[in-house]
Each structure stands twice: as C-alpha cells, then as structure tokens.
Queue: 3 jobs
Job 1
Amino acid sequence: MTFLTKKVISRRRMLCGMGAGVALPLLDSMIPSSTALAATAANPVKRFGAVFVPHGERPGFWTPSTVGADFEMSPILSPLAAYRDRLTVVSELCHPVDGHAVTVAAWLSGTIPKRTVAEDVLAGVTIDQLIAQKIGRDTVFPSLEVATEDFTGYIGGCDPAYACAYINTLSWKTATQPLPMEINPRVLFERMFGRPGTGKQRLARMKTGRSILDSIQDDLKDLQLDLGPRDRSRLSDYMDNVRETEARIQRAEKQAAANPDIPDAPVGIPDSFPEHIALQFELIALAYMTDLTRVFTFMMSRDVTQRTYPEIGITEPHHALSHHSGDEEKKKLLVKLNTYHVTLFEKFLKKLRDTPDGDGSVLDHSMIMYGSGMSESQVHLRLDLPTLLVGGFNNRGSRHIKVAPQTPIANFLLSLCQYYGIEMDKLGISTGSVALS
Amino acid sequence: MKLRLLIAVSALLGVGTRFTYSQQPATSAADQQAAALNKYCVGCHNNTAKTAGLTLQPLDVRHPAEGGDAALETWEKAIRKVRVGMMPPQGAPQPTEQERNALVAWLEGELDRNAVAHPSPGSPGVHRMNRAEYKNAVRDVLGLDVEPAALLPPDDSAFGFDNIAETLGASPALVEQYLSAAGKISALAVGDPDTGPAAEVFRIRQDESQNVPVLGMPVGTEGGGMIHTTLPLDGEYRLDVKYMISNLGAMKGLEMAHDVEIAVDGKRVHFATIGGPEDFAALMRNITEAQQKVEARSSTRVPLTAGPHDISIGFAYSGVVQGSVRLQPFVRDSQDNLDATGHPHIETLTITGPFKASGSGDTPSRRKIFVCRPKIQAEEKTCAKTILSQVAHRAYRGAETPQDLDRLMEFFATGRAQAGAGGGFDRGIQAAVERLLASPKFTFRVERDPVKLTAGEIHPISGVDLASRLSFFLWSSVPDEALLDVAAKGQLAKPDVLTAQVRRMLADPKANALVENFAGQWLYLRNLEGFVPNSSGFPDFDDNLRQAFRRETELFFNSILQEDRNVLDLMTADYTFLNERLAKHYRVPHVYGSHFRRVTLTDPVRWGLLGKGSTLMVSSHTDRTSPVVRGKWVLENLLGTPPPPPPANVPPLNESNQRGGRVLTMRERMEEHRANPVCAGCHKLMDPIGLSLENFDAVGAWRDHESGGGSALINASGTLLDGTEVNGPVALRNALLKKPEIFVNTMAEKLMIYALGRGLSAHDMPEIRKIVRDARGQNYRFSQLILGVVNSKPFEFRAKPGESKPPGESTHLDKGAN
C-alpha cells in the first residue's frame, strides 16, 4: 500500500460539499491572482534551466542532418518544430570519461569527478549554481533542484567505484557539496508556497519558522564548541544553510503578503511516471511564473533507471532497453521514448511561451538547456552529446552549431556562464568557449 | 578501489597512525612466508609486471605491520583474496592448503598483534539522523507514527548503507524540510485544534490479486488492504473508495455482486454490495453515472477519535464458487489494466477530515507528552518545564542543558501568548516541541573529545555517547530512559551492565530495526518494492508474492536474531516462513491462508538465503536471470570480496538469445561474453556462482528448463574461484561454507559498518577477526556478533581528530576510471 501525502481542501470546495480532487488542477487556474511578473521591457528578468534525460538520444535520430540557420528538424526534435526560432542545437560536444556516474556529475560541472565511493566526493560547482549566484539572489529560491526517482529502492544500483551522489543529482553547490533533488511534488509545492492555510496562517507560520531558525543557531553554536576542525566545518556549513533558509523565508514573506491566495496542492507522487514528470514540470513553470526562482535543474529520470512507460508501449525498463545490443526493435522503441521525453518537455515550453512577461513571454527571457550525458547508450558513448538550448534570452535561435569534434562540454558550459555576465574564462576542464550566436 | 578509498578516508579524518617498528628479529616462520610470497605472488605482483596495479616487492612480509597505512591495506586485501582462494588465480601454481592457511595465519597474526599495540578506533564525524532514524526517534520521543518519505528527502548511501555519517549531507532544502516536518509533527502530536480538513489517499498496488485473502487483512475477506494512520482530531471523517477502471473505461467486476466492507480497528463501519444484475445493467446504460453510484454506495462518513487507527477495506470472501476463478489463466488476477477474472479491484481509499472537529482527544502522543496538567494558570510554567525537560531528555539523548530548556520555554511563552483562551497551554507546548524537533541537537549526533587530549589520542567515548551509539545501532533510534539512566550513572562502562543492556535491547520489539534497516539493506530487501517483473514473462507474479517474499526473509532473519541462533543458519536453516501464496510458488504443499507460519523445508534447494525468492529476485533483471548480478551479489554480500568494477567500454551481454536461428542458453550467452579476455578475468569469479543458481528463474521459481523460448535443460555446473566443482544450489552452498568463518567475517564487517556509520579501513580488520574468533567458541550466536561489535575498540573508543586536509583540485583525473 502506497502512502500519499495530504491534500488540504480549500474552504470553498468544502462548502460546496465536494470531495478531494486528486489530480493537480490545470496550471492556468493555479497562477495566483497577482504574480510577480512585473518585468519591464527595459529590464527583463533573466532565467536559466537545465533538463536532463538519461541514457542518451538515438544516434541518427537526434542530430539535424544539416547545420546552420535552416537546419533540418530531426525525428526526435520534431515536437519542437514550433520553437525553431528559439532553438539552438549544438552537436559534437563530449565528455572525457565514459560511464553513468561520471557523465551525470560532469554534465553541468564540466569536470572529471573523482573516483570514490563515499566521503571524499569531488566534482565541481555546477553552472546552475554559478548562474544562480548572478541572477537568483533576489528570488525566494536562488535555484530549485527537481527530480522524479526515489533511489532508496536501488541498493547496489550506483555505478561501481563511484559515490551515489554523482548519479543522484545534477547540481553541486561546491565541488564537495551535492544538492539533493526534490522528487515529491507535494513537498516541492509546500516548499514553494508553504503548507496550505489562509494567508494569515501562512504568514504566521513563516514568522514562527524564522524565529525557530534564528533560535537554533544558538544550539549550533553549543554543538560546535570544542569540536574537531572537520566536524566544526560541517556544522558551520549547516549554519550557513540555516541562515540561507532564514533569508529565503524573509523573501517568501514579502511575496506571500502580495499573494494571499495559493493554488491547490498536489497530493503526492502520482502512480504514472509520465504524470509525475508532467507535474514536476508544471511546478517548475509555476515557480518561474511566480518568480519564486529563476534557475532550476530537472532530472526527468535518473541514469540506470528501471522505469517503464506502458503508456506508450514500453514495458522494458529504460536502462535495460538502452543496452539494445543492436536489436532493431529496441532501437525503434528508444527513438519512441526519446521523442516522448521531448513531447513532455514541449508542454513545459508551451506554458513558458504562453505566459506574458514584460515585452514578451517567459520563454523569451529564459534559456533552457536540454540534453543527456551520453549519446549511444549501448556503450555509454561520451562523444557527440545530445545538447540543445531553447529560449529567447541572449539566444538567437534557428541554429544548428557543429563544434570541432572532441570539444569538451565544459567549453559550452563556460559560454553559457559568460552569457549570464559571469566573468570567468575557465570552467572545469574547459579549453576555450563555444560561439553560440 | 577499496584500497584507494580507505587511504582517502584516513587522510580526510586526519588519522595519522604512528608506527613504532617492532623490534623482534625475523623468525623462521617469517622467512617461510617470504619464500611462499616469492613463489606464488611476486611472479605477477612485482615492480615490472605490476599485475592489477599491485607490486608486493617493496613490502616486507616479515614485518607486515610496518610500512604505514598503504602496506596495511595491501596486506588486508591480500589476506582476503588468498583466504577465499581468489588468489593465486586458477591456472597459476597453487599453494597447498597448508601453505595457504599458514600465509594467512602469519599475516593475520602480525597485523592483529600490531592492532592491539597501536589501536586506531577512528573518529566518526557528526552524524545526521537518516529518514528511518528520524521516524523512529519521533515515535520514541513523542509517541507518534509518521511517514518520513512524505516529510524528508531520501538519503544517499555508501558501503551499502544509508546511515554513513559522511554521506548524510545538508542543504538549505533539507533545513526547510526539517522545519516543515517539525511544524507538521508538533501539530499532530499535540492535536492542534486549528487543523483543517485534509485528505489522505491510500493506494493499493495495481498488481495485487484481489480475489484471494491478503496478508494482514481479517479472516473472511479477500483483496483490499490495511491502512495504519494517525488522525489529527476527534471528529467526522469521510472514507471514499475508488475502484479500478479497466482499459475499456468501465469499472471491472460488476457482473456479479460483491460485498465491500470498511472496518476501523476491527469494527465494521460500512458495508455495501456492489455489482450484480442491476449495477451491470446500469453500467450498460450510462457508464459514468453507474460508476458514481457504485462509488457513492461504497463511501461513508463516520465519527472517529484522534490518534492511531487500523482501517481496513476489502471484499467479503466469495469463495471459489462465484465468478472469481472461472477463467483464470494465471495466479495474478489481472494483467496490467485488463482484468481476466471479473473481480472488482479496490484502487484507493481516501480519508478526508476532520469535519466538525470536537477536540484533541486522548491519544498516545498526548499521553506521552502531557505528563502533567496545570489546574490553575500559576502552575503552567512549572508544568511546562516538567513536560519539556522530559521531552528534551529523550530528544537530546541525555545531553540537554538548562539553556536548552530556557530556549524551549521561550517558545512555550510565545505560543502560550499567541493563542486565545482555551488551547493556550497546549499551543505553548506545541510551539516548544516544534522548536525542539527543528534543533540540530535533535537531528545531529555529535561526539566530543576531551579538550586536554591532543590530536590522535584515543579515549573511551562518554556514557551518553555510548548509549546513543547502542540505540542507533540496535534500534535505529534514540536511547530509552532505562539506557540513559545507566549511562548517566556511569555504569555503561561495566562489561556486565553493557551486556545486560544489549540483551535487553535485542529483546525489545524496537530491535526489529535491525531487520528493517540492517537486513533490509544488506540483503537488498528494500529493492523489492520497486521491482516489477516483466508481466508477459512472469504473468503469475503479483504484489501478494512480492510482499510474501519480503515478509518471509524478514521473519527468517528475525528468527535467527531472536532465537539467538548460529548466524550460519542464515545460509543453512531447513525451515522458513510461508503463507499459501509463497508455498504455491515454492511448491510446498498443505499451506493455506494468507498468514505466515514456520514450515520445515524438505527440499534442501530452498534452505537458507540462497533459496529465498527475495534474494533471487533482487539479483535478477526484470525479464531474465542474471548470473553476473547473482554472482556479484554473493561475492559482495556473503563472501565479502566484491569483484572490481567493469572496465570502461566493454560490450554488454548480447540481449538477443537468437544466433542463426538457434536459441542460446544463458550459459552459452555468458560464455560468448567471456570470450573477451578483458571480461573473462572477473566473470570467471562471478558467473559460476550465478550459473549454479540458474534453476531459479528471475522471480525465484524453480525451473528445469531454460526460459525464453529455449527448451534446453538447465546446466547448473561450474568451477568456483578456488577450483571447487559445483552443480546446483546445494553444492554451491556447501562450497561457500567450506570455510564458514568467511561468511561470518563478512557479516561482522557489514554489522560493523552499520554500527559505526562509516566505511572500514585496514585498522578495523583485526577487530573484525577478533569478533569472529570470539564468536566461534560461542557457536557463532547472533548475539555474540552483536556483542563483539559493541565491545570492539572502534565502537567504544574514538581518536581525537586532527586538522583536516583540504580537498584536492576540482579537476582531478583518476586514470583508474579508464
């Protein structure tokens, strides 16, 4: 028996005598009455997002056959045809090392993660965190980290010789601090809007929360007394986290005061995996629209996933299928699954495109990266990584760029950082930058 | 890999072990071992060949304890490989059994002697509670059951367990969730009268067969399930049932009448009949309307009290006569969303409330918290102090200070003042409990070193710290008052007191945490829930069997623990626990009903862990067996010698079993894979183990023939890493237990990792050997292993940590990755 989290019934619904709605209501009805979309044409908000899919994209079905502005849409990319003017496909980027864990941890860090199974994990700060430092400081969440898979049922399922953290998250706050990703839509929702209640109750709760966080810093100081340097530094990291959360709540209070109504919360993790992905996408879109965050990372599904997609006739786990051994039937199913993931992504893009923001749409002021840490999944191929950008922010669109073979993805990531005005000339193992527009 | 890691661990912890060189002259025994090493090992592991990246040339086997941590790690690795017969490899000149044992005994003896002279217990870092510990701590501090998966993010694991201090990191998101959990839990524990109505949805797995009695449900029912939940307030609650809708868009099973019953704590609160000619005809007229009517008839609104309840929903037993088995081709009564049997399926039960809430009620958590009641306002402060010092004593595990109490009292005062008349006192307690649950003093375990010691010095940990280590090891929770009392009196250092406490704790139902968390991870039982065998390959498999697999192994492990049996019985016991569903799967006759009972197994293939459906399934793929995964599972979890990770860029097993119109057996496919010399080295360690279990299919059912279109008889023979010929599971088991101390040693290592919450280093191996040696004379009783861990140096002592080294460059390339 599965346990789903609580869903609070709004007073209005209760009076109507209706039962508990189970699905998340349509996004359109969820946008709070007054949102923070106050960007002006002169000063548009900048946003960044990264969407990761595991196990690559079928070679031959992802990369457009022609380069340049009038590139030919490939089968897997066809659901994005309507976004051509906002789309940049980049091919031939690569990682230096093969494997599941290394390529996931390197995807946004451009480093070679250290081979170790526990204490001394070491990757690199990821670009979402670098960009968040630049553009995310004024929002409630400098960044949001979102995923879909509870990995506690995958004992023994991490890459041999590599710590589980490498494969469980896309985002690293520092080279040694992986950020956990939120998988439960209900919890994500409550992080964004607080526990349901009247506007007054929510404000009171935030106030209590802040006073608790303020007070427990005294507890932390007690604990730090006379500790060894390593423990002391771990607790002082915790102290930083407490202070950061305090500041977040403060920002959230301001926003809550402006938005007394909050949408209905989802009940928990849906049974259907595609529904789960869609729900997380909706919540991310909502976070963008309400300006709760300007930076997100989303792991649509985790490398080595055992998920199946019976909805589209895929009953073999994605990871097993990805090692197709040349079986044509399996390769066809993989193309189908790759395309299906893109259609889920497209629904998200559509929401961003349909939401006005200043002189354009939310999508116009965003740059969303989409891709995978490998190309041919059969051998975990680290070459020609499927990578694209969608969005109007500083991104001309209508382009397929083929970089020189063996260009590290770090170069591309460095260029993205530079786009956001971060002054840096090296990221991880980068050897230069990639001209994107 | 392990070697590198362990060095890194000690470097990080700053444990610089200082070696004083032993002065004894080289004995003839030492010279003999040097000769043996030269004869059997150095031919490959020398400075020139460096086979597997290892050279033994610079090391001195006459003085294995000298040469620093790296040498210790190398010798420990050598012991491990030589002992199980993995080295020297097959094909190379083999030492006699006597020579092999002599080399191992020499190395062990020297290393153990060194460990006694220079103990190195390590310095575990601050330990954040993981999800399971948090759940149990809330239960023991507040008397409240919560579901942590809905409150906190999942924990990363390392070394096979999710309670490893260094892996339990923090982030702002985690702080937020601790804060939010504190708010929800304090409200539920105290019974916050402002709690508004909310809905909880409980889902029954779609692959549960609902035409048979279900585990945990009352006799006389079939299908459905039992829900354990805690209601926030006295009041009215709605119970809504949803049934499965088939792929044709219609509710299944309405052709015949079925009785549905909802019971709360064993007492019926609702009864309805659904289906039959009238409903079926209505369904033909208007599907939506008919279904709504059926669901409305199944739902009810009832007054319920606050606190924990068992709520069951199921069908009245219809027997074999009516409908349910008329055309049932498979054991599972539905195929995905097709239902072959005409039996309705309950999909969810939603509990919504409270409505017309009438108070906080009398709940176990309120009884545990409110140990006093102020009669007049002037008594409130004293009573609040009494309450909060008791709660803080449990939550902060005996380390609470007067300042801690002051801080809680501040929140009591604010909460008390915020509320209007009536609930003021309770609200104050709620606010203070919220503050307490959010405190790092609750969520972190911090052990202190005496200030006067210098870095590297060793000292016994304090009584309260030892109490916490014990309770987190045996209960995955905070210590109880009895344990804290003994600790506070300074008596825990007395061996007889400590032993008595361990025995008392093992006898407590809370020791089931060892089954859930230790065995659940060691044996991969936690993977069962997410394991969905391919339904076209395994149409009989249903959730009833999945739950039975888990229950069987939990009961089996628990019987060894609670009856204090020899831990080798885990491998060899001729009994198990079965219900009808599982007995059918194992082809054991005369077992009826959904409840479990102890059964003697006449067929030795099912004896011990190697015959359990649970372990056989979690070491398979969803569509076929994997001799590799099974072999690896055995090497890693039973023999303690995990194979090295596969090299990069090796082609995986060809998934197709067709070659030129012929169907290959699994063995032939594996042999094809092993033809690649890069793969062969490790696969000849793993594959023979897995292949000898090939008579068990991917869901652990016995088979004589290959699955997947082939008709060949299974050939379960092979040669193990030490040259032993095996054929089938019984021979494999006997071979694995030829040196029983290897299994016991592995189990002791796993217990030690779990107990300490850290990975092990070469310094811990002498401790492990001591535990195994001491337990041998005690017939390897389970409690002797536990006591061995508890009485070990690493468990009772710690070294004061030194300055930590900064992490290396962010782009550190490890050539080993290729």
Note: The CA atoms of residues 93 and 409 of chain A lie 5 Å apart.
Job 2
Amino acid sequence: MNCDECGKNKATVHLTEIVNEQITKLNLCEACAKKKGSDAEQHFGIADLLAALSDVEAPSTASGASSSAAPKSRCSVCGMTYEDFKRIGRLGCAQCYATFHASLLPLLKRIHGSNQHLGKSPTPTASSKDLRASDRIREELEAAKQELQRAIKKEEFEEAATLRDKVKFLEKKLSEKKIREGMK
Amino acid sequence: MPNVDHLLKQTCEWLKGTGSNSDIVVSSRIRLARNLTDLPFSHWASKKQARESLDRLSEATGSADMLKNSLVIRMAEIDDVDKQFLLERHLISREHIVEPEFKSVIIGDKEVINIMINEEDHLRIQILQSGFNLQECWRIASRLDDTLQRKTKFAFSPEWGYFTACPTNTGTGLRASVMLHLPALVMTKQISRVLQAITKLGMTARGLYGEGTEAEGNFFQISNQITLGSAEEDIIDNLERIIRQVIGHEENARRTLMKQNREMLQDKIWRANGTLRSAHIINTKETMSLLSMVRLGVDMGLIEDFDRRAVNELFILTQPAHLQKIEGRLLSSAQRDVKRAYLIRRRLEGR
C-alpha cells in the first residue's frame, strides 16, 4: 500500500482521524506522517476524544433519556451541561462529577481502565500512612465487603452492583500487590 | 514588587546535571492537580470566582512553611518576555500565559517547588529535581500537599479520588515525568520503536516543552497517562521501570556507536563543538541540535574541558526570552541569533 499523501513511498503509518464525528483513515509513509503529525495533534484535542468516547459509551443516557430529563443534565452548581463538557473537554466544577456520574463512569473507565481511586486521600487516618500498600488495600476491601452486605440487606441493588465491582477490583489489586511485594 | 530578574542569576536545581543517571536523565518532575470544592474550575469561573480562588489559594500557600521566601508572581503583572522566560525555565505552562488575569505562580527556593494557581486546575503543584529522582520529587510534593490540605479543602471522593477539570487527570491528579536525552537512540534510528513501546505501556512521550512540541535537541519527556486506579507509588514505580529500560537501550546504543561507528560519532561531536565555538550567527534549532552532540561528547568522556552543568545551562540560556533578559532589552530574531552565538562562544571558552 502506498502513501495517501505523496503516493510514492510505502505507507507504514495508519492514522485514524475523527473530525465532526466522521472517521477518516489515512495511510501514510513515515515522512508524510511526520508532517501530518503536528497538524493532527493540533486539532485532535482532548475535546474531540471525549466527544467520540462518550458518544460511543453512553448512548442510553445521551439520547434515550435526555429529552425528558433535560434539567438533570445541567450542573446545579456551575450550570455546565453535558453538551458543554463534550465541546470543551473539561468539567465545570467538582459537583459536575456527581451531576454527570452516569456518563462519566464509562468515560473514566475508557480513559484509565479503572473506575476506582486508589492512593492518597485528603484525610488519611494516622495509621494508614505508615501501612504497606497491600495492607491499605486490604482495609479498603474489608470496608467495601461490609458495605456490600449492608446494601444487599437493604435491597439497594444499584449500589450493591457498584460495590461488587469495587470488591472485585480491590481483590485483583491485592493479589497483584502481593505478588509484587513477594518479588521485592 | 518581586520580579523575575533574580532567577536569571541562579542555576535552577533541575539543570545542575547531578543525581543518578544524569548522563541520560536530565530531570524528574512530579505534578499534582488539586481543586477547591466550592468554586468552578478556572476555565469555567466568573471573574469574581477566579479572584476568590486566587485569593484563597494565595493565602493558603503564603502561610506554608515549605514555601517561605518564595517568589510570588501575578501573571497579569509581568510582560511577555518575562512570561516566555518562565516558560523556558519550565516554571509555567503555555496555558498559564493565555488570559493571565487572576493567575499566579509561586516559585520556591532553587526552583525545586513551583505552584501555579488558576491554571487548568485551581492548584498545580510541581516539583523538579535534577537526574533520575522521582521518589524525592514525590516525597516533597506529597508533604506540600499534606500541608496545603490542612489549610483548605480539596475536591475529592473515595470513588474517583481528586476531581480535576479534565477527566484525564482524575484520581491521583498525578503526572510523573522524566526528561531524557536520547541522542544515540535517535542516531541509530531506534527511537520511534522505543517511543511506540512506551505508548503501548500507557505512557506518553513529548518534546522539551511539553504537549505538541518537537523533540528538539534529542530531548524526550516521558510521563504516565493513567491517573485513576493506581496508587501514586505504583504509578511512579511503573514509570521508573520503563525509564530504566529506556536508559539501558540508550546506553547500549551509545556503546554500539562507539564500537562500530567511532569515527562518525567523534566527527559529529567535534564538528558540533567546533561550530558552536566559531559561529557568529546561530538560531535556536541549530543550537539545540549541536548542543545535544556536545552534551553527548561530555557524557561519553570525549570532551573534557567543560562539564555537563555548563552544557545544560546553555540549553536554557540560549532560548529567546533568556537572551533578551540577559541583554536587558528586546531583541529581534536576527539580533538574537548574533547574541546567542556570542554567548555560546564565551561560555565554551570558559569565560
């Protein structure tokens, strides 16, 4: 396959661009890809990426429920709408994370491969700072398990599902951590 | 009023050319993003709200012991050359220059700590160290973060960690990055393969001046991309492992060049050295690529009459705003090229 740009050299770089939700594919040689690269980075910003991702990931909240639940998609604190966020690529305030929780869930998962924070928190308990990372995860895991039992008893199934995922996630982290610490 | 001029007289910590692996690793950096709970993020804030976050965070940082004797600079109060000057020293981002109103930067002793207020996030804490030293950066950053969060409340949830304006920073809000000088990987044409591998491992590679910049002078900035789902120590650990491999590859490439292409390598290094010592007009781009070769010569023990720190300094001193600060007046591009060549000649002669 020859380069789409110069038509001479062999195409070794395959570039996918998303412009106005239209996907175009370009096959380029190394020299043309380099030239193109700087342009591509310019207009292919984070906003485009987010727009593309969130459209794919959250069709039900975006199209299905949006017309009836329109007020809900505006942040009550800063006034940002989900449309604004898709356009700008940045959220408006801390509260937006709660307002757009359902849409952000799959988005964060896509970006980071995870939906659960691990690591520092603003109010560490005096002891947890000195603990080994695996002990800290174990503590969190125990807490999540207890919460899960409580949620099941109360029949709060949506929350239980989230907690179940958290438990699974932490169990996986813990076993990885153990293997690593064992290796050290 | 404090001004940026006295920075010109000092060498910032990260340029010192010391620390482990400093023949390949120029500097290490940790950045933490934090936001106030009750005010909109900087880009979405009204003027009144932006003023409030600036005031509150100025107060919180102003009373922190770790930031005693820091230089506090309001972005709206300095001219374009000063702004560019701070950018060239890696003390502020490009984003911090646009719409400077209600933005400030706090620069700590030896430029190790610096804090941007009202950049993309309300607070951007940045720690810079010379050489391969992410652990020390993290220790300082975390201690400063602890201090500041006793004074003000940061937006956080146990589920998603620290809230940031852009979801790509959500979680730890941590960006760990390392600036590498990789001339041998570039010369042996292995660099794109190495960078591709880095990207596959969830890291990103950029040029000397961050996002969207070219890898001038064979400098590459490698940093983590993922901020949610891994603890800070793990993110850093992971990046360190990858960097160690890249260092190994660069060392191999240098050895191979020495063994198989010694004449070619020496020719490049000594020609670069000769050009820099003789040129009377030179632009930034040529300077960067020639200095890169000279630095390689110093690192490989081929050039012995000056040290790594002197070369490191030249990379920054020859940037456009630095030249104009040194000269104390505005210079046209052509005037800068002359001044740059003069400065390099003098420095390389040890004057």
Note: The beta strands of chain B are 25-34, 71-74, 104-107, 113-117, 123-130, 156-157, 161-162, 174-181, 203-206, 219-224.
Job 3
Amino acid sequence: MDNWTFGLTMLVVGMGGTLAALGALALMMGLLKKIFPVKEE
Amino acid sequence: MFDAILNGLSGLGAGVVSLHWSNPIMIAVGCLLLYLGIKKDVEPLLLVPIGFGAILVNIPLADLMGEEGFLRVIYNMGVANELFPLLIFIGIGAMTDFGPLLENPKIFLLGAAGQFGIFLTIGLALLFGFDKLDAVAIGVIGACDGPTAIYVSSRYAPHLLAAVSVAAYSYMSLVPIIQPPIMRFLTTDKERKINMSELSSTTPASKATKIVFPIVVTIFGGLIAPNGLPLLATIMLGNLMKECGVVSRLTKATENEIANVVTLFLGISIGATMDGRAFLTSQTIMILVFGFVAICLDTVCGVLFGKLMCVMTGGRVNPLIGAAGISAYPMAARVVQKEGLKYNKFNFLLMHAVGANTGGQVGSVMAAAIMLSVMKGMGIIP
C-alpha cells in the first residue's frame, strides 16, 4: 500500500472512527444516566 | 613495573578516550533535563530519571544498555514488552474522576476532536518521507499522553522511542504556553465571554453510572478496536477500582506504590535509549517539530469543534473548552479556566473543561486503539 492511500485512510477512518466511537459512548452515557438516575435523599 | 603503571593509568583513561563526539552533548542534554525537572519543576517525576538515564547511557564502556547491563534488564522488563505504560495507565485511571464528563456526556465529542492532530500529523510525517510505522509513532505524540505514545512507539518504532517520549512529555508540560495564543486567535471576544455556568443544564451522574461507565467503555472499545484493548482496559480497570470503592487497598497501591516504581523504571529506561550516536540525528529534530505541530493541530481542531458546538447549541458552549479536549490532564483544563476568566471574571469554565479534558483522556486512548485496529485491518501490522 502506498503512503498516500495509507495517510488518507488514516485520516478518514481514524478521525471518523474516533469521533463516531466517542459519539456512541456519549449516547450510551446519556442512556446510563437515565437507567441509573441519582436517587433523591 | 613502569609498563604496569602505564597500563593501569591507560585503563583509567579508557572511558575518556572512548568518548564519541555525541556523548558529551547528550550528557549535557541529560543535565538540562535534570535542571528542568529539579529547578523548573517541569514534569520532575519523569525528567529526573530520564535525564539521569541519558547521562548513564552516554558514559562509554560501562555498557549499561548491553546484553547484561542493568538498564537493558529494566528496559526489557517493561518497555520492550509495553508493560510499564500499561501499569501507569491503571494508576491514571485510579486517579481520574470522570464525574464532570458524565454530567455532560456531549462534551465527549471534544475529546475526539482534540485527537485529530494525531491523524493530521501522521499525514504530514508521511509527506516528509517517514515510513508508515514511524509516521504513526510520530503522530501519536499528538495524543498528548505519555504512556500512549510510549506504548505505540515501543511496539512499532522502538528506534524512535526516546525522541517520541521526550517530545510527548516536553510538549505536555508546555501546554500552558502553546495553547493560549491558538485559543485567542480562533475565537471572538464574544465567544470567550460565554458564561457556561449560567447556561449549563447538566445533571450529576449516580454512583452506579460511574461504576458501569468503565465497564461499558472497555467492552465497547474492545469490540471496535481490539488491538488497543490493553490501553483502554488498564485505564478503565483503575477507574473501576476507584469508583466501586471496595478495593481501596488496590486503588491506593496503583495510585502510589505501583505508579511510583513504574515511573522510575520507565523514566530511566527511556533515558537509556538516548545514546548520542542514535539520538543526535536530523530525524530527532524533525520528530520534535512534528510533535509540536501535532499538539497545535489538536488545539486548533478542539477549539474549532467547540465553535461548532457553540453554533449548534445556540451559543450555550464556550468554544474555549474545546482546547481542553486534549489529554494533557489537568493542565489543559486549567489553561481554559484561566483564559475564560481573563475575558469574563464571573465565568467558571473549570468543571466543563475538566469534563472535556477527561474526555480527551478516553479520546486519546480510543484514537490510538482505533489507529492500531485500522492498521491491522490494512495489514500494516500483524
């Protein structure tokens, strides 16, 4: 594989993958907060 | 008799005679690192052992990095097999409070944007003729996360380990100098004054959420990026131990004894890779330059993403917190708070910035994990 293809793939899949993964985690955390809400004293 | 005395004296001078021109320079570099650590308080826990290791390895004939040398033994024990950075990650996880991030999970996205510099720098390094694995090791300086940089470079470009580690830790400590001009350049006065404490609608996370968080991140991250699971799993194990509260002895050990011993061994081993003959090359200078560029690009991408979030939320996000999306914890969050206060003395961005900063910690590990898995998918690594 040439450097150009490798670099471009890293940019697209790496940056996109990181953003998508953390976006999915953010959604999961929002969901977790609904499943386990803070209990009132 | 006279010959014996002469031979004895020549034995005493053998070290001096064997000095390569690069050795005194590197001994001076080691002294400089010691000075920065001791006198200027720049990452002393790392720079002191690194500086001393650099001095030791540049004293000829002692052969401390030879097959039987004690520095080689330590290096093989935990750097060559990537164990030390992982052990440090358990301690980092145990010391990190993800509460501010869980209060406002949307700012997780800033932790992703703060890693874009890694991938942009990989592209730049490739353009400048570095091969693929070297470019990846250089780009990972942009993770702004010492253990991640050491893990990746020791595994895939061990010949660059010293330069990458020194760059990663040096630039982390320079975050308060590097970031503010970029933050000011990319934001307007009005944006910098946005008061998030007035607009915030965050809700606190329960103890159960904090306990489940590291388990979910480990399983999810492991499934999409199995090659980086050691990085994710160790930081999350440390955090799980902290949050569950039932293994406080282990948590304290990972925060203190284990982290301290490993930091010493890791530092001296990295210093031991700074042999002048291998370190003083134009490649090292290029790596230092690329490392700087990587951290600048992280900040640029983080702040620009903050601006995007500001627009999308109708002005409820202060773009400055985007700069905290890098992993340098807690320096980046402090820089954001300080900058925010300069423009609005009633603006307390700290908790939001800490949230973005811890998001950056997960983001840097996730970015490295994804990078390794993408490389495996492309057949670049086994």
Note: Chain B has a mean pLDDT of 91.
